[in-house]
Write a structure and sequence with these properties.
The chain has 359 residues and is α/β, with parallel strands linked by helices. It has 17 helices and 5 strands. Strands 2-3-4-1-5 form a 5-stranded parallel sheet, sandwiched between helices. β3, α5 and β4 form a beta-alpha-beta unit. α3 packs across α5 and α15 crosses α16. The longest helix is centred in the middle third of the chain and has 18 residues.
Length: 359
Amino acid sequence: MSSPTPPEAAPAPLPWDGYLTGPENALAHASALALARGEAAGVSPLVVFGPSGVGKSRLLEGLVGEWLTRRPGASVAHLSAESFASACAAATDRPGGWVELRDRFRSLGLFVLEDVHALERAPLALAELAPTLDALADAGASVAVSAREGPGQWRGWPPRLVNRLVGGLAVRIEPPRLATRRRYLLDRARARGVALAADAVDLLAGAADGFRPLDGWLARLTLTARLERRPIDRPLAAATLADDLGTLPGLDPDPSTVAPVTVDQIARAVAERFGVSPRDLRSGSRRTSLTVPRHLAMYLARDLTTLSFSAIGAYFGGRDPATVRHACQAAASRIAADPSLASAAAAVTLRWQKGGGEA
């Protein structure tokens, strides 16, 4: 009697399975491949930077996978900056801790550190990183890190560390364009085995400012569609994601609640009130003299227009929806506690009325 044939194991995923390349990330992808091939000269340290949700983590995952595919069993460390900081803090609490930590991180073939900007809050780890990178360079190892901003924006960092990181290649990943977001949605929907109506694809791709919200929205829509046994079309997407997307065009909103004011008009009014420029409000500056009016402008844009958090963030320098949501909450708290700010908010608001034009 012959024994049953065992089922074939599913093929292991390839390093770049599901990774979408386009003009926004082509250079970063090519740099990661070069590093994985061993072409470290002029590439390592590879600094990949860009706003949240553009695929930095997925790129570094692909790099690690490609590296291990070419070098099975190689010594690789792939961790977040917070994990590195925790390891440094733990090293101070036990005898021989620093020796163990340095043996662990200075004898690698590839060292990958995500969100390196988080080390600004961990001076001990920040000080340890520079000699770690020096030791790795001396050993011929390769290094890749991710950050929100390029090395030129790292104010107050140890010069030795900055010099080490700028000695390689710094590559920005741009936020995905509309066509890329559409491709990403269709690719992820195909992988999940679900169908997206064209109007739903247009709605979601137009509202998102990166890949991360698309993943979350698609997961929620897939579950909702299965529970309600209906297709994923624009009405389902608008109803399911109303809190994230806000009131959307083309869904027959009540005309009495639609404000004709634009986010640009609001920004100009707030900027005038605070003696700054609209460009200042859209900048990356974190000075209190700009963050307070910027948060107020975002809060009023959310209150007086039908724009989503994503659309408001896009106007204010490409900020992500979570940042805008936090800004609105911060502004609401300040208005409640600060009569002068409440007065400024009221003065700007009175220039428009819901459903009307400028006063």
